[in-house]
Protein 1
Amino acid sequence: MDPLFVPPADRWDACVARTLVGRDEVIYRSHLVGADPALTKEGGGNFSVKGTAEDHRGRVNRVLWMSAWGCDGATAEPADFPALRLDELLELRTSGSLSESEMVDYLVDCGLRGEQRRPGIETLTHAFIPARHVDHCHPDAVIALTSFPGGRIAADEEFGDEAIWFDYRQFDIGVARELADRIAASPRCRFVLLANHGLFTWADSSEQCYRNSLEAVARAEGAVAKALLGPADLGGWAVPQVAPQAAPGLLAKILPAIRGALLAGSPGTVLAVNRSPDAVRFASSTRGPLLSQAGPSCPDHLVTVGYRPLVLDQVPTGPEPVLTAIGRYRDWYDDYFERHVPAACRGLGKRTDLPRAIVLPGLGVVTAGPDAAMARLCADHFAQTMTVIRAADAAGGYRSLTPTQAAADEYWPLMRLKPQLRPPGGNLSGQVFLVTGSDDDRLSTVADQLAAAGAHVALGGERPAQAVAAARAISSRYGERRGVAVRSATRDPLGAVQDAVLAYGGFDVLVDMTGSAGLVSAALPVFTGQGRPGTVLLAPDEWTPTELARLESALDAGQADLIVNAVATASPIAVAQAAAFFARPARGGTESDIWQGAVLQPCRI
């Protein structure tokens, strides 16, 4: 059996660290912690350092540099660490009660400069802990230790009076004061174990704060290992794994239906498929899928996965059982919302009732997001829950947040201000284009133009190396997985279509610059599966009688609500503009929209 946890790596570089002072110290440490998935996931946790800084009048102030709300520690920059007047924060240590909105306003007012980012909600805890450096992170092992019935006893045996156990509560000024009081009353305490949440560590040096986190995780791993009551196999296989050679074909049938269903009320969505051995074993196990319905391992997952994933009870043989299950999930979510979301938290409206993670027995896990980065983060968060469930189950059972706790957090106004919930930018955000061409330069230019407008692009060129290089360049410029390379559409049109579906779940527009016979026919099942109008743009290098005949053939091939257009232009930029324009009906474009370029036989069939 595989190890329960991947241990964190010690990446401390004394040569680098000794050159840093003040805010730069915590930025360096946040990069180390934030980049290590064994310690925290993207956008999770927060970090601080205390020091001195001058205000706008040159006066020296004691300050707390605190990571901004929702910032990613791995990529944090100086602007992500606002400076707050520490003495003003400490006045709240023993002052009267404050409402949530009053506390947030007070934190903002403590800013050394007015244009700073909003600090994290755990700011007062960082301020009240007297050590110079404080970190909060979400390690798998610590969360697992606090997620099974005997976890508190196991933690006491391992940490003794070096750690405080703190049952899950939403962070507010009362939590900050209670933690500060308990730490002050425990002089040997070096860690706070936050049940179903994570870890606090602190020290007077940045290196020791970092090493305290590494130590706490290692000891938590050991405590969980000692507590195991049986094999960590979630009861073994309940259903057989779909054969590796058959899984891509089955997923290619299922994913467009999932994507189409999740597009309801959304301008676009991107899927990610986790077919790792861990994901397949979990999805196919006896207890894993059922335990996932008990809630997330960490409240951060409420932003991405939600309270629970959609779970199918058997290997799907096609789209129908998945679509039926999505309908049931929507009914469950509506009931969850009505039963558990406080009236005071409904002001920002109801979040989507569609699943964002789907557990497919025999196949793995599918996650969704408004772009590829968020779909991957959703996958990362659910992977953490899978890890925690596997360990906790083997130690006696898995316990998570109650539906009431989860709903309060999911609809907590502060949680809904997380940067991860902001929609991605670009007119084509969430849209997917399959772009094929025999001219590498033309292909890469069209794809680049579409990605610049926010699209995700699957590139099918004649030379795989060039397509891979173009896709990497697009992702580097515009964001994670904004471009992927697929098989050549001229040599293997079905393969190109399948690769695009496995990469993104489907596509909205096919841009065919190859003159490849069969490509439109290969794409038709994807459009049909998504249940939305598909758009095909034919734009060969030059129009010949053969190409005109092919256009007519494509128009005659309609088996779904399909829009086929052809442009007569040698300009790749014009092709990209036309592709973006003709994608508009699926995004709510009107019949009065008029394309000003040269078009041959526009037709909706």
Note: Residues 587-594, 600-605 have pLDDT under 50 and may be disordered.
Protein 2
Amino acid sequence: MWTPDLRTLFLTLILTDVVLTLILFLYWRKYRTYYGYKIWLISLPVYCCSMTLILFRDLLLTDLFTFVANVLFILVYLMRLDSIQRFVRSKALDPAIYLITLAVTAGVFAYFTYWVNSVAFRGAFLATALTAIVIITCFLLIRSEETETRSIRLALAGIIAGVAGLYIIRAITGFGVTGVETADEFILVYYYALILSDITVTGLFVVLNMARHQAELEQSEQLARENEEKYRSVVTWAKDGIVLVQDHVLKFMNPKAAAIFGGEMTDFLGRPFLSFIPPHEQDSVRETYCSRLSGERTPDVYETVIVDRSGTPVDVELNTGIIELDGKPAGLIFIRDIRERRRSQKALEQAQKKLALLNDITFNEIRRDMFTLTGYQILIRKALDEPGASARPLLEKENAVVQKINEALTFAQAYQDLGLRPARWQSVRHAFLLAISHLDALHLNRTIATGDLEIFADPLLERVFQILAENVLVHGKTATTITISQREEPDGSLILFFEDDGAGIPGEMKEEIFQPAFQKTRSTGLFLAREILEITEIAIRETGVPTRGARFELHVPKGTFRYRAPQIDDKPT
């Protein structure tokens, strides 16, 4: 049977490392690798150089080739230690360690090559140095906390330790390369094991990179799933509507957008976005959309009107941007329902106008009364200067003017808080109970048949109910019950009834009771109640039957009432 000589084994080892170098290079060019991979890749051709010098040492400078080959061999395993440290600790080996180790190695090998030419001592030092390097390498591999690559690291540490064991056996047995053409079975097994271990160690290092890459992919996929779920939750529960428009067609919308449009998501996807824009706004919206797609600078945020599924116009604020969807530009649009904001702004403006008007009326009235009061004072002084003249009639008239000024100031105090805070959703039941808690009305039975009804009104709604209840206590002498109920009208509005079973209001006074002059002389406050309600376009009138009790009807417009608990972002519908 043919037995390979040492040159054949060395040549096999060299060719094996050349192939491994090519494989690792191709893998590095195509796939993800990590810190330390390049150092291991470079160590392979260095190892080839070391084996090549050993192979040809008998043909040329034997001592020099042997010396350089041994130093390169130590450098190879030092580089692999560096590669492992970079991989597991992300830290390069200190260059000083390279310099010191190679300097000591070169000195020792030079001594045992040129001064004391001893193959046994060279082998012993080689095994000792290699064992030290291997111990540190195995320690790094075993101590790493990366659980995903643990089994591969342990296997790699075991094989590297086995390589060190081979060199220790070689040093103990004292055999060396003598240049003969054949090798005994022990040397043959040694070099076969060396070739297989080199292939296995390099292969495991590549597998180590692959395992880490696979673990990172799994972590990335898990993170992507978590992020997808998180962002889906953000989009799903967003308080603003979110839509994607591509080629003027709705490609996506979240539940809030569907609610603004008045239906389910499936009702609108695939439909042209402009079909939800009123005709008079379509040209402007189309121009803005096309300009943004072409890269022109356009306002990112602007207000417009959309038409929901039922044909009702909805005031909205659009916040727009451009993203890429399936390789094509698409419009990312955030839609904010601003009906409540518009309604609040309108209510605040209305309140401010009323407040300015009332201030002007009160100011003029007080100024007129002060002018009259000044005139009476002049007349009183003249009367006091004239013998026998009486100032009493003038004093009585003066007191009447002072009383009018006091009534005007009391009236002004009653409405001074009008419009200070924006309108909001309020529970009818809660507002009434708070209002009546300020009054001595324990003898009155109360029936509240409004359920969870809420209306969009000025924060002084509680004051309105207090005024109505005071009216019952003051004028409804025989009243025993207050009833609050509601009825929805065919036009989508609602009528809120406030009734009592007292004396009622005469027909000729049904409108007069809401006049400012009536409030100043009778102190019923119904004028203020009407002013508060009109801020949010709620009308009030009295429709009761005289002698059967008073009945006030509050006409609440469509979209300003609901039957559910208040939420932060709810808008009038």
Note: The two ends are 97 Å apart (CA to CA).
Protein 3
Amino acid sequence: MYIKLPVIALFLLLLNITLPAQSISLFPVIENGKWGYINPQGKTVIPPQFDYALPFSEGMGRIADKNRRYGFVNTSGKVVVSPKFVYADDFTGGLARVRLGDRYGFIDKNGRFAVSPRFEYAENLREERALVKENGLYGFIDNNGKIVISPQFTEASHFHQGLAPVKAQTDDGRELWGYITKAGRYYISPRFYNIRHYSDSMAAVVTNMRGLWGFIDAKGKVIIPPQFNEVKDFQGNIAAVRRATKWGYIDKSGETVIPFKFDTADDFINGIARVNTSTSSSPYSYSYSTTRRWGYINTEGEYIIEPQFAWGAQFDRDIARVIKGTGWGYINRAGNYKIDDRIEYAYDLIEGRACVKVSGRYGYLDKTGRLAIPIRYIAAGDFNNGLAKVLRQEGAGFVLEYIDTRGKAIWQTRGTLRRIFSNGDTLYVTATPRQPSTNEYHFSGMELFREPDLNSRIITTLPYGAKVTAKDTPLTNEILLGDGLTGLWLKVEYMGRDGFVFDAYLSKLPPPPEETPEPPLLLEEYFDRVLGVIREPEPQDPHRRASDTVKLYGMGVEMRQHGSGRSAYSTFKIPYFSVQEAFVIIKNLLDFHNAQLPRGYSRTSRGRNSFAVTATRQNNRLSRLTVNYYSPSGSRVYTVWREGDNVFIRENA
């Protein structure tokens, strides 16, 4: 029987939005520990035989063996390149970047070297050029593998709109940035301390050591003097810039066209920008917040949709997802919106299906708002080439499936599925600079490496709370960190730059503030702050604590309060989490950043405060832990355990 959600039906029907179908591809699947590929009809076209398999690109699928060596298979299942590379990227422009030993090269689709492994570093092709490094200097090759710009720059970035930022030593011995053309000639000679790519004939630059940003025009002339703490690229004739703590907008002459009054301001997309204002003095910017109100402005700075939403997405194809009150829904450019309190989370309409979350489970609406696929999944992805990957519970186990747009399973496998980060996930760095370096695997903050190798170049140190985007699933070899955490290499993007980090100090939840108040925040206060409340529990007698009520947060986190008085406690359910992630949050929350995750029991003291941990493992996997915290301001007990793909934290405070 179909369940109708009529309040949004007409709205979605009028929008009638679909996305163009992507090119036909093969889908990686795993059965009995081996990976293979199916076609969009669910037929196995490459039988499970590989230790690891990744999606296809340009007709070639990336595979890996137990030793984490990479190769390629074609659509007929022929292993064109046997696994032998330390690392290999997807094919781009007919070439794939590979690493053999400690050197990089490029192969073609026949597995032959277009460029033999000779470079210390190399990037994928962009605009028919690939950045390479040889003897400590950077240059570029073309899509035939020929060096067209000899390595000569101390730093460089990829080409964009025909220009590449490069850093070189000037006659007076300084190393400054400029721009080159695809022929290798200077378009703007090195004279800047920092630069960004051109966008709409303007580029953001830093002209002196003060570190403030300004803008130059297409001829390299400084049009807008350095004065901003943070900037975004010009989109049309307008750019978002931050001065001190507030954002505003300027035009290409540097004139303020929209006053500096926003806590966050995004780029304009088709004449509309998302902005928010806040009553909070917190420096942390989170997607959901009870103190922030999101609205939308036009290029004149006028609110076309007043700030009223607890959260709102950027407009895409004339609609945006929003949260108001306790419900999710959709809003159009005219400000008309439809919200349904039963929808806890709503996703974009893709290939005629919109994934929604109702009562902790996922299903799909069609473009008329009718329930096309029942609400029954504990996880669900968007449709791609007619298929979506979903996860549903079946007894004590789980079923991983690919379903078609009717909800029919065309492929499935059963078992207990381990939580992993997925491509596109937004993740937060939970490592703090105050954590000591106890061995080579533990860093001050979180180092971003060029490659999954401790000997590769460090791009930057990711600060505590930094937001990154997962670009792949984690690589397979586990590494034990010096503080007892187990981590994997994961490829991520940070501020437009790709690199590799250990995922042990990454989380789908923003970390607690680095400066811990006294007494430390309760978990409820923490989730209020980092996620925002979507549904408050029903009002209770003010003279006693709420009993057995549910509080709903973004990302599907739920809190239940039990009992009253001294016997009261709270239980938090966090989907797609791990016991280890929960441990990192708790120790950061309580300002015990240096606490170790033991094999059994450990105790850490700091002044009059103490932090004791008891950890339980099953099959060498962390399954449960108890944290006893004491301070003069009060004591707490945390119990953490895992059930399926969910982690539960019980807090007695």
Note: Residues 1-23, 280-290, 434-444, 538-548 have pLDDT under 50 and may be disordered.
